């Protein structure tokens, strides 16, 4: 994770108007734990990141993509691939033609 991880976690909390105590209660951790995360002394587990993203009203992909910009690229690629897999062959041909037009 990048070095601004804790600061970004703190900014999400502040933007929602929540205190460290409120976030700690929602995540079933201590306020000291939230303070340590926000000050970069502790990293959240995957389980807590999932709960935190739900609390903040965003997906885990959105949260991790904002905390770790390199992840965002793979999340977008995966979402695109998932969408393409649902298309029939005719729709895939149209999409490919459209992409070729954009690339010009």
UniProtKB/TrEMBL annotation:
Domain (HTH cro/C1-type) ranges: 9-63
Highest taxon above the source species: Bacteria
GO MF annotation list: DNA binding
Species whose genome carries this gene: Pseudobutyrivibrio ruminis
Pfam annotation, one family: HTH_3
Protein name: Transcriptional regulator
UniProt xrefs under InterPro entries: Cro/C1-type_HTH, Lambda_DNA-bd_dom_sf
Keyword terms: DNA-binding
């Amino acid at each position: 994770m990048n070095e601004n991880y804790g600061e970004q976690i703190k900014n999400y909390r502040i933007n929602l108007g929540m205190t460290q105590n409120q976030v700690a209660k929602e995540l079933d951790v201590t306020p000291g734990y939230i303070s340590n995360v926000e000050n970069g002394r502790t990293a959240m587990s995957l389980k807590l990141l999932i709960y935190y993203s739900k609390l903040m009203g965003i997906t885990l992909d959105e949260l991790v993509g904002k905390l770790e910009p390199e992840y965002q690229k793979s999340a977008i690629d995966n979402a695109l691939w998932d969408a393409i897999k649902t298309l029939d062959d005719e729709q895939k041909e149209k999409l490919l033609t459209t992409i070729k037009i954009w690339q010009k």
